[in-house]
Amino acid sequence: MALKYLSGFGNEFSSEDPRCPNSLPKDQNNPQKCPYNLYAEQLSGSAFTAPRTQNLRTWLYRILPSVGHQPFKKFHGSNLTHDWSEQEPDPNQMRWKPFDVPKPVDQVDFVQGLSTICGAGDPKLKNGLAVHVYSCNASMKNRAFYNADGDFLIVPQLEALVIITELGKIEVAPNEICVIPQGIKFSVDVSKPSRGYILEVFGRHFTLPDLGPIGANGLADPRHFLTPVAWYELREDISYEIVNKYQGKLFVCTQNHSPFDVVAWHGNYVPYKYDLSKFMVINSVSFDHCDPSIFTVLTCQSEKPGTAIADFVIFPPRWSVQEHTFRPPYYHRNCMSEFMGLITGEYEAKKGHFSPGGATLHSIMTPHGPDKNCFDFASKEELKPYKIAVGTQAFMFESCLGLAVTKWGAETSEKLDPDYYKCWQGLKNNFTGPV
Ligand SMILES: O=C(O)Cc1cc(O)ccc1O
Ligand SMILES: [Fe+2]
């Protein structure tokens, strides 16, 4: 059966599992006795004292409080790391071939299938990000995960995930994304080998970009963000594992009941999903190539005005109409880091040189731009209106931080392609001026 959702970004939502009508206390958060004898638990996503516009919290009414668990111990068995000094810095343009999905003989769940490619910063200081891939072929069985360090923005590339969260269930397919904020427990079910990308930001949250002169509408519309409805299960006398990512390391504890026992909740600190095909694209209709910030879906801002710890940017299907213009991305060097992934199809600047499920990293001030084939074609093409990227979707995590590549990214994955630089080698000197 299709899942139900609540629509809106940053709303004050409330939801009750229909099996328990009136389970949400109406007039207060902490009644002496909650309806159905539930426990009240607050989950804070901002300082209690954060300004109203940034204040995030949700009240959960659950069968048992989260605190009823055994002590945490170390959890081994994933390639997740925040050790940014595993490798020497490397400013080269990097391209990864598609990351492997597990072989059928190896049963790997979402948590076990997490591998960190690159990142920067420190969750202890609430500043930084990590880029991971997930690759799994098994559902999380009696196992939930929460990230004490920050938010996960999950970008499925191969197959859909069903994500059971404390606030309800979300189904997220390729060309959709979902955000699970810091601390919210979730468990991932898969029905086929599945793969995707994760942008993790430490201790800050994603917001919608301001629209400035664009006006009140455009880009991602707040009403297209979907939050789950309350859903609970009553499972006791089982051994349920809670894996906690804390200060860059994984820990696990057990408890004898399901963590998905929230019967009702209200608040504005919630997981959500968004369908990338709903993005309203704004672009030049006269001449020249706009900066890719026009395609920002969500941003996680640093303290510096207009500067992102991470922007999530997409390159959606759109009309290309600019006159007397080299239409593909320009050659450039950027004071920001650019990590790109490809969900499906071909990326306009690298046709045939960038595969779905793979990635590229163009580090701070490292030159990059269209490959030779793209330049040769686009500098001569007839400039009639045409649709670009039909049926394709590339995306970028753009960050003001310098990203360090992990040992897994550089070596263990065996996907780093030493030939990437060759795609620019054939670019000719076409100079027609005097010598
Ligand atoms: O490097 C890239 O391919 C991403 C990118 C796209 C674009 O249209 C303009 C600038 C830019 O960095
Ligand atoms: Fe770029």
TrEMBL record:
Domain Homogentisate 1,2-dioxygenase C-terminal: 277-431
UniProt cross-references to InterPro entries, sorted A to Z: HgmA_C, HgmA_N, Homogentis_dOase, RmlC-like_jellyroll, RmlC_Cupin_sf
UniProt keyword list: Dioxygenase, Iron, Metal-binding, Oxidoreductase, Phenylalanine catabolism, Tyrosine catabolism
Top-rank taxon, per record: Eukaryota
Active-site annotation: H289
Domain Homogentisate 1,2-dioxygenase N-terminal: residue ranges: 4-276
Region (Disordered): 7-31
Pathway linked to the protein: Amino-acid degradation; L-phenylalanine degradation; acetoacetate and fumarate from L-phenylalanine: step 4/6
Reaction catalysis annotation: homogentisate + O2 = 4-maleylacetoacetate + H(+)
GO MF assignments: homogentisate 1,2-dioxygenase activity; metal ion binding
A GO cellular-component term linked to this record: cytoplasm
Pfam family, one: HgmA_C
Positions contributing to homogentisate binding: Y347, H368
EC number(s) recorded for this UniProt protein: 1.13.11.5
CDD domains, sorted: cupin_HGO_N (cd07000)
GO biological process: L-phenylalanine catabolic process; L-tyrosine catabolic process
PANTHER family xref list: HOMOGENTISATE 1,2-DIOXYGENASE (PTHR11056)
NCBIfam families reported for this sequence: hmgA (TIGR01015)
Protein family (similarity comment): Belongs to the homogentisate dioxygenase family.
Name under which the protein is recorded: Homogentisate 1,2-dioxygenase
